[in-house]
Amino acid sequence: MAMILILDDRATNRSIYARLASVIEDNVSVEVFGNPVDALEWLEGNRVDLVITDFKMPEMDGAEFTRHFRALPGGAGVPVLVVTAHDDRSFRVRALDAGATDFLQSPIDHFELVTRARNLLALGRRVQGEPVAAAEPPARPAALDPLQVHGAEGLARILDSLPAQVSAADRDGRCIYANAAFAAAVGARPSELLGAGPTLLFGPDRGERSRRADLEVLARGAPLPPYREEGAGGHLLTSKAPLRDARGTVTAVITTSIPLGPEPER
């Protein structure tokens, strides 16, 4: 049974990562912390198989946390995945120099996080000479869309339980996925949104802005920094990231919007 530690000072991120971690493989246990000092105290008496940590946190950043963790008994061979929203190469260099195994920039592609974490668990077991707990999943056909691969139904159930509104649009702007929170926000069922364009999903103004942002992601092949926008019921913190197929080609854009509530009165 794999033990995964998740460290992030934002409760929303902890919730999302914990739910995604539960589908990495069978019988996963997850411990979550919002403070790196608390996490290190717990790690002194407990064993983990994978650490997923934010970079910018109070008291110490992800690089310093990783350095302290590596010095603990048993910490040298455990994979550490560092996640950050900051597009700063120095963060990556510092994290890797401190002993991080991999680095992922947010807004994250949920499918990529699950795949990377699964691969890191297997790597950690090989490094420590342990048997791999489960067989590697069969190679997926190159023609399949990432949303149709084996295990996507389980991941879709996890996405439906998130407080964030998650949707994906193909290169032509048609909706190919919507989770329950997104569908509820627009007053529809997820299945009713498939094939819909941005104007139908968001209205003319927001739909036009969303499509422009999607085109920028498709052109750059890189995520956009999170931005604040007005949605149904209040303000949202929205992020967009490319969704790639098995060959690495960007085939769609995944959009994640976290409700922030109504704009406070001034």
UniProtKB/TrEMBL annotation:
According to the lineage, what is the superkingdom?
Answer: Bacteria
> Which CDD domains does the record cross-reference, listed alphabetically?
REC_RpfG-like (cd17551)
* Tagged with keyword Ion transport: no
What stretch or stretches form a coiled coil here?
Answer: none
Q: Domain PAS spans what residues? A: 151-221
Q: Which PROSITE patterns does this UniProt record tie to the protein?
A: PAS, RESPONSE_REGULATORY
Q: Tell me if Zinc-finger is a UniProt keyword of this record.
A: no
Q: Which residues carry this modification: 4-aspartylphosphate?
A: 54
Question: Which ranges carry the Response regulatory domain?
Answer: 3-121
Question: Which keywords are on file for this protein?
Answer: Phosphoprotein
PANTHER family xref list: RESPONSE REGULATORY DOMAIN-CONTAINING PROTEIN (PTHR44591:SF3), STRESS RESPONSE REGULATOR PROTEIN 1 (PTHR44591)
Q: What is this protein called?
A: Response regulator
What organism does the record attribute this protein to? Paracraurococcus lichenis
